[in-house]
Design brief:
The complex is a heterodimer of chains A (371) and B (385). Chain A has helices at 3-8, 84-93, 104-136, 142-160, 168-185, 216-221, 225-240, 243-262, 270-301, 307-317, 334-343, 356-363; strands at 13-16, 24-30, 33-38, 46-52, 56-59, 66-70, 78-81, 193-197, 204-207, 211-215. Chain A has 371 residues and is an alpha+beta fold. Chain B is an alpha+beta fold and 385 residues long. Chain B is built from 13 helices and 10 strands. A 10-stranded antiparallel beta barrel of chain B has the order 1-2-3-4-5-6-7-8-9-10, surrounded by 5 helices. The chains are: A alpha+beta (371), B alpha+beta (385). The interface between A and B is large, with 73 and 73 residues.
Chain lengths: 371, 385
């Protein structure tokens, strides 16, 4: 160890050459460039690196240490200065010391572009995706739609029982009812199937590819063919409007875009879930209102009133308003639907959709399970 | 502390004399960190989360550069932009995979109801791959004494191990967890390098099992008496950390830790306390906001919350959203201060480094890894250390 190095060692200057982890104590000399020299045993100080001042950049360091790198040196070469006055002197010479750091302007740029990205994503979610869903849904080829429907049907049957109800007389009545509605709705002949599922849940739904299912629970609660017909007409409305495919494209698109925004493509975190629920519920309410409109038209075309269907719904759900935060509801409130269909109530001008006998056999379509 | 001993090393000495273990110091300023995460959280809010790449980078830069091993501070050289690019590339790869997943799922469902559920496992595999690759990214950005850490090994090989062990853990109701962790850690550490030094992991599953089996046995109790759960979890984490640190080897260097098993009680309860406080404030705020809207608009509470008069419920919705974000922001800051910074410091101050002399002249090697792994981890919402 030379005497000079020992004299400096209270606040040593350390150099790492970026090739090895050797910790070298060095002395600095100012010239055209910063001369980094290692004290030698016999031949005196030996210059091991020359850093032009313009190449020197600040690296992260704990308080009290100035750590430097140089663009012209190996990327991991570091010079650590612990002496405050030496550090201040060097900082004054290095004009481009902090050039690479994120500045206030850099942050402003990040904020600006993020906001722009967010605004465009929100606009696409609000306007672009619904438009794309409306335009694309009718263009989805029938076989694709049917495949998706088949997959959904298998799932539904796994949950609600293996097969549809098969009572012959009941089935004939159900087919007659569905066919009358289908003809009035103007749906393609080959694109539709319908069935009754043996489960006590009072509900009905449409699947992609023209599948309509009524659950036995709903059938049990219905008092007249018109009640059931209105509900079926509503489901046919969903088919006519391609609501399933629209919903699929819409939900897929929004959850992807909202996930993109918050950085989780699978869309599992709470913020995404919440914002998605609100956006999708409003879209779904729109689709339900559309299907109601369609049901009203069909029932009028058949010369029957749409009101009984709403009464059936009201009987099942009861009054819904005031039960929590309804901005998340996927359907319009039942009482509002009832009010709307009551407004559309007209005295019957067409023949009954089913005879009493047919209605009784339809109610017994699932055999012994009825009330 | 031993600048003098290590200053001018000439030719490598034949046998370095045995030295007392070295400590790891943390010199970071807590209020500085709080300021950093508060500012970062606000920027994250106004950028709809996009600032997270830069915030995560700033947090790591702070933690790394204030961690001193044998008197020399580490350095993190990753940058936010790299993470952003990694995220975008990950998106480009994940989107077609999601579509394929959707289509294959439909075919499976046609064949048998819910047959596509196992497909979800493929995302778990992808998540494990992401964890491995994200670790590689972080490690190659970690510099100490002018030499970087780096990693080889295959993310998919790691993922396969994680999956098989995961299955075993599932089948044994969690009892196999120590062996899973030991095996995975061994894989990770044996493919970890500091310059030309190779890492290893000497912890074994049996040791970990002996330290924590009673927690496994007591875990049903915590489900019933849930205030006990944080204690149990803190015990588990402390034991896990200590076992993990004790097992780490890099070249001839080994670590040991005397982390007490009750080390994290305070941290977890502080987080829970803050969380309860914030929830209470949020509830009160919501109540107040509803009352205010009702008073000002003259509508009933039902109308204010209803769906059909959307124009009337907008002020309420806006207030809810603002309140929600404020709470999310505060919780974010608290988690980062307590569970990242304070936990980091608490663990670091218990570490002893043995035979640090083995790192006196390590030759640098290893290439930088891309941030794609971090992007996947971000896109799939998985995290690992």
């Amino acid at each position: 160890m030379s005497a000079e190095a020992v004299a400096q060692s209270a606040k040593p200057t350390i150099f790492f050459d970026g090739v090895s982890s050797r910790r070298r104590q060095v002395t600095l000399t100012h010239g055209d460039a910063l001369e980094i020299a290692e004290p030698g045993e016999a031949e005196g100080p030996r210059t091991i690196a020359r850093w032009p001042y313009a190449d020197i950049r600040r690296a992260d360091s704990p308080a009290g240490i100035l750590r430097l790198a140089a663009t012209s040196a190996p990327p991991l070469a570091r010079l650590e200065i612990r002496d405050a006055s030496l550090a201040a002197d060097l900082v004054a010479r290095c004009i481009r010391l902090d050039e690479h750091q994120t500045t206030r302007r850099g942050v402003a740029k990040i904020v600006g572009w993020s906001m722009a990205a967010a605004v465009s994503i929100v606009c696409v979610v609000l306007f672009g995706v619904p438009l794309a869903a409306d335009r694309l849904a009718p263009l989805v080829p029938k076989p694709v739609e049917r495949r998706i429907g088949d997959a959904a049907e298998v799932q539904v049957k796994t949950i609600f029982g293996r097969s549809v109800c098969e009572d012959a007389a009941g089935k004939a009545a159900f087919t007659k009812l569905v066919n009358r509605l289908r003809d009035a709705a103007g749906l393609d002949d080959d694109s539709m199937t319908a069935g009754v599922l043996p489960t006590s849940v009072p509900n009905a739904f449409a699947l992609p590819g023209g599948k309509v299912f009524v659950m036995q629970g709903l059938l049990d609660k219905a008092h007249s063919p018109d009640e059931l017909a209105g509900i079926l007409a509503h489901e046919l409305g969903h088919l006519k409007h391609h609501d399933n495919m629209r919903g699929l494209i819409y939900n897929g698109g929004t959850s992807f875009l909202i996930g993109l925004l918050f950085g989780d493509v699978t869309g599992s975190s709470a913020v995404i879930f919440a914002s998605r629920s609100v956006v999708e519920a409003s879209y779904s309410r729109e689709a339900e209102t559309g299907a109601d409109t369609f049901a009203i038209e069909i029932m009028h075309a058949l010369g029957r009133s749409p009101k009984p269907a709403a009464e059936l719904m009201f009987r099942i759900t009861g009054k819904e308003g005031g039960s929590g935060f309804t901005i998340l509801a996927s359907h319009p409130l039942t009482e509002d639907r009832l009010a709307r269909m009551t407004k559309e109530d007209r005295p019957a001008s067409g023949p009954p959709l089913l005879t009493d006998k047919e209605w009784q056999s339809l109610k017994g379509i699932c055999g012994s399970g009825k009330i | 502390m031993n600048d003098l001993q290590w200053a001018p090393i000439g030719p490598p000495q034949p046998i370095p004399p045995p030295l007392p273990p070295t400590r790891v110091d943390f010199t970071g300023d807590r209020s500085g960190f709080s300021k950093l995460v508060t500012k970062g959280a606000m920027l994250e809010l106004v950028t709809f989360g996009f600032y997270r790449f830069w915030l995560v980078t700033d947090i790591r830069r702070h933690l790394w550069s204030n961690t001193l091993v044998d008197g020399d501070a580490a350095e993190y050289t990753g940058r936010g932009k790299e993470l952003l690019i990694g995220f975008l590339i990950a998106l480009a790869i994940l989107v077609p995979i999601y579509l394929a997943y959707f289509l294959i799922g439909i075919e499976f469902e046609r064949w048998q109801g819910f047959a596509s559920t196992p497909l979800f496992i493929s995302f778990y595999a992808f998540g494990q791959f992401a964890i491995f690759r994200a670790r590689r990214y972080r490690l190659t950005r970690t510099i100490w004494r002018g030499v970087r850490f780096w990693m080889d090994g295959s993310g998919w090989a790691y993922s396969l191990r994680a999956m098989l062990w995961g299955l075993l853990v599932f089948l044994t109701l969690g009892l196999a967890l120590p062996w899973r962790e030991a095996s995975l850690e061994r894989y990770k550490m044996r493919h970890t390098h500091f310059g030309d030094l190779r890492g290893d992991f000497e912890g074994d599953g049996w040791q970990f099992f002996k330290r924590g089996w009673w927690l496994w046995l007591l875990s049903p109790v915590a489900l019933v008496i849930f205030p006990l759960a944080p204690f149990f979890y803190a015990q588990f984490k402390a034991r896990e950390w200590r076992w993990w640190l004790d097992g780490i080897r890099i070249g001839g260097v080994s670590l040991s830790s005397n982390l007490p098993t009750n080390a994290f009680y305070g941290l977890y309860w502080k987080v829970i306390g803050w969380w309860l406080l914030l929830s209470t404030i949020f509830a009160a705020y919501l109540g107040g906001a509803t009352m205010l809207t009702v008073q000002l608009s003259g509508l009933s509470a039902e109308q204010v919350l209803g769906p059909d008069n959307a124009s009337k419920s907008i002020p309420m919705l806006v207030m809810m959203v603002i309140g929600y974000f404020a709470v999310a922001l505060a919780i974010n800051i608290i988690m980062r201060i307590y569970l990242q910074r304070d936990l980091w410091v608490k663990v670091l101050e218990t570490i002893e480094v043995h035979n640090i002399a083995a790192t006196a002249d390590v030759r640098g090697s290893g290439e930088l890894a891309s941030a794609l792994g971090e992007g996947f981890a971000d896109g799939l919402d998985v995290a690992g250390f």
